[in-house]
Amino acid sequence: MTEPRAAQSPRSRVIGYLCALGAGATWGTTGPLSTGLYGLMPATSIGFWRVLIGTVALAIWGIVFRRDMFRADRRGWLIVGLGGGAMVALFEIAYQYAIAGVGVAGAAALLYTAPVMVAVLARVILKEALTPTRVALAVLVMIGVALTVTGGGSNAGAEAARMGLAAGIAGGLLSALSYALTSLMGRWAAPRYGAVKVLFLEAVGGVVLIWIALTIWGRPATLPPSGAAWRGLLGLAAGSVIAANLLFFGAMKRIEAAPASVAATIEPVVGSLLALLLFSQRLTALGWIGLLMVVSGVAAGYLLEGLKKPLEPDVEETARPV
Fold it and tell me: Which among 35, 98, 103, 298 has most CB atoms closer than 10 A?
């Protein structure tokens, strides 16, 4: 369990916000680093190795610092390991298609429809209220996504044309759906097992299920063909899996879930800027307006949720899929 956060000092809260910003920024490197690897190995293999390397690193950390991470009951392995692992597998494969099809900015914008899906699914599954404010923010996000993907030139970079726009949009929406379902599962699992154990269980399940899915699909994961590919994968896993999650969990120990999530919405902005600088994936003025609408709508939703919820210091929050 996390330590109570109500008595945190101002300095500790500043560190918490910096950790959340760092988490968002490092998640934002996923698209650019993946794009850099597309010329070296298949996109589907990139997702597999990203999770495998991250899982091995997390296991080593658990052996040294948190051995209880490896202990879970049968229900935990079935629901989190198998169910959460399936969502991780879907996320990894689908998000690579999104990045390669609609570019980094478009993929990030599509991924950020996940909170909209969470609101709708929570209404259906958990009977949570779908308030007019939630509906208005959902409309804002969806319009922003449409502007970014179809009117903003988000797939203008050379690498982004590899998969095609339709495959990219489908991949982005599927990655958002997996993100949303993981969030809902986390509401049940994190209070029972802790966020770090949930992350590890779903990562283990994800590695196994990605390998099975790719083998059945006839596209088995291939070994990185060169030192450059290994360096790219290690950087991708070190940043967007290991560092990002450790930073986000560090933020959650110091500040509440809502401001931590708001700060982490810097992710698509960082990703878009890096894609522009490294791969000339340009957004038009309309595209940047759309991306701003997405970030604003998601951030406002997190903030409003935080304002109306009482602080529960003993409840851990999960981040995104591995």
Answer: 103
- Asked if the model's pLDDT at residue 242 lies above 70, the reply is yes
Check residue 157 and give its pLDDT: 47
Q: What is the pLDDT of residue 125?
A: 79
Helix, strand, or coil here: 135? Answer: helix
d(C-alpha 92, C-alpha 73), whole Å? 26
DSSP label at 115?
H
Asked whether the CA dihedral 292, 251, 275, 31 is positive or negative, the reply is: negative
Helices (H), the chain: 10-27, 30-37, 43-65, 74-76, 85-111, 114-125, 132-150, 165-193, 195-217, 227-236, 244-252, 257-264, 267-279, 285-308
Domain boundaries, the chain: 10-308
How far, CA to CA in Å, does 133 sit from each of 119, 136, 171, 180, 262? Answer: 11, 5, 28, 19, 17
CA–CA–CA angle 172, 174, 180 (5° rounding): 105
Find out whether 184 and 120 touch, Cβ atoms under 8 Å.
no
> Does residue 34 have a pLDDT over 70?
yes
pLDDT reported for residue 138: 84
pLDDT > 80? residue 276:
yes
Cα(245)–Cα(23) distance, rounded to whole angstroms? 7
Is-contact 23 245, C-beta < 8 A?
A: yes
Distance of CA 303 to CAs 143, 173, 267, 298, Å?
Answer: 20, 24, 17, 9
- Determine the pLDDT at residue 159: 44
Closest CA to 57 of 239, 317, 225, 227: 239
How does the average pLDDT of the chain come out, rounded?
84
| Rg of the chain over all Cα atoms, to the nearest angstrom | 18
Burial of 2 (0-12, 13-18, 19+ CB in 10 A): middle
Write down the pLDDT at residue 3. Answer: 43
